[in-house]
Here is the input.
Amino acid sequence: MITRPLIFGFFSTVALLAEDAPRAVQIVEPPAPAVKIDGMDRAISNTGQFSIIGGEPQDRGNISALAEQAKDEFLILTGERLQPRDQKYEWKVPINITLHGKSGDPAPSRTIAMQILVGESGYRVNMDVHLSRGIEHERLKFAITTALIYERGLKNHPTRDSETRFLVPPWLVDGLREANAWRTNQSDRRFYEALFKSGGLFKIDDLFSTDAEAFDEMDAAMRAAFRVSAGSLVMALLEQPQGKEAFRSFLTEVAPYEGEMPALLRRHFPELNLSETSLAKWWALQLANIGGQNLATDILSVSRTETALEEGLRLNFRNGEGIVEQKDLAAWPEVAALPEPERVKAVQLAQDALVRLSYRCFPSYRPVISEYQIVLNDIARNKSKGLAEKITALNERRTTMRAKAQQARDYLDWFEITRARAGETTGVFEDYMRLKERLKSKPHRRSDDVSKYLDRMQEIFSRPGDPTTPAESFEQLNDVPELPPLLPPE
Here is the structure.
């Protein structure tokens, strides 16, 4: 559970991101122009893909530069450009931007609207931008990124098929913008830390199910949590094996796609086919790498190291019937019968998990992790001689380490108890517990706006089933070794 100071600190650093969420767009025939567009002043961007008409010359120039900058950021993320404009990107669908109004005018409900038009010359994306609030840089880049994703889906889409409804999900655009912010060191790691420690506001299903209306209704704090969650997912996808190539392929299908998002992702990211939970695991690992443990100072305890090690030592492979299975390391003989490429793939996730764990495991486990890496390499190379004995020896070694850690803890508890003296038992702790129970039974609620807001966010950050006391402080002790008798108080 997150304490109020942490919640308040998290919200105090939130930037007010108020982008217009992508909405479903249907392809339509262009209307007859009310004015002769060719007679209007226009600006053409450097690559020629963006055409800006209306507004003042300075506005057109600024928006042209912003559009190209957003495009550069997008192409760098997808691996199609290493540096801004260092290679030509072959675009097919022009993006026309029409400016309306001026700064200070009454603001419409939506300052940016988008439409896909089809004609004899093919598709084009039209954007109407109202300048009542001036040029909103991040909102405009959000819209440009959306238009660029539309362009991917329209490139090879037949013009005769005008019934298709195109939709770019909010998580994808927000995730790309956040991934770029992280790449350019403009994102705040504190967002990730707060989200990671809270257990996460948005899960995979929540991200995928958030539509434009729900996105618009979020307040600043929820919007920031959504952006961090989406950014972590996009970065996790880009870091998959051949991730950028797979991501480019994914972008060509996502806008016209009408099925379940996990199915589309698994189609383009084969590593996600290993199990039903692979996508969630990759996303959680990415979030943990950014905002989780401080690798320099946050070391896992013995029990948490054991848990992480048990979860990491999993073999992922297809059985004889072609069904994907995930089994414990003890199932290595089943993997040994597979061809070499499949054996290598079966141990890959376990090897990656051990590498990540080695940075923050309990120090005495590092040699054990190194030996498990050797075992996994032997499985991949089908060097089965003595493999069963190695695994058994490692299991026995871990059992001994757990027993020693428990014995050390028991001894410290015994030492603490026996050092207590009659004069030192003041009863203050019992008074504190009674006071705590009274406050719990009769909570005092402040009614000011700030307190109401914090109470609401406390409920959001608190997950059902969270313990009220640290679980590790009250673990049941099994097989406790004999200790010296307690010394009577002096």
Remarks:
- Residues 25-166 form a domain with the Glutaredoxin fold (CATH 3.40.30).
